[in-house]
Amino acid sequence: MRTNNDCGFLIKQICDKLQASVNRELKESGLTFSQVRYLDYLCTNHLRKVPMKELEMVFNVSQPTVAGIVNRLEKKELVKTKQSEEDSRAKTVQMTEQGYEEYIFVKSSRERKEHELTEVLSESERKEFQQMLIRICGHLKG
Question: What does the H/E/C string look like for the chain?
Fold first, then answer.
């Protein structure tokens, strides 16, 4: 059987394996990998109301995708949404105290996966790898 060593294919395989592993670990919490990514972003911005449009741009996804994830997080009372004070057509999202506590609880899973992802690399290789990924990510159009 021929193996595919194309960079894109390998990156996709890594992403799929990482996501499946994280989702298994998160099953007890009832959260998904995507939801934790949103909570992570909201946690770093927890003192302000984040426009949903900003989440679309940060995660490079469509409005319905953001709305679906935010909706599920809101049903779990981890975030709350409000109509924007600046634009009545727009919504903002803010993490709740319960969301912050849940995020802190599941954050360790994310940190373990990050370590697992790069533990086969030396410290200098890790830094170089991260810089290459940043450069490639910045180069690609979404």
Answer: CCCCCCHHHHHHHHHHHHHHHHHHHHHHHCCCHHHHHHHHHHHHCCCCCEEHHHHHHHHCCCHHHHHHHHHHHHHCCCEEEEECCCCCCCEEEEECHHHHHHHHHHHHHHHHHHHHHHCCCCHHHHHHHHHHHHHHHHHCCC
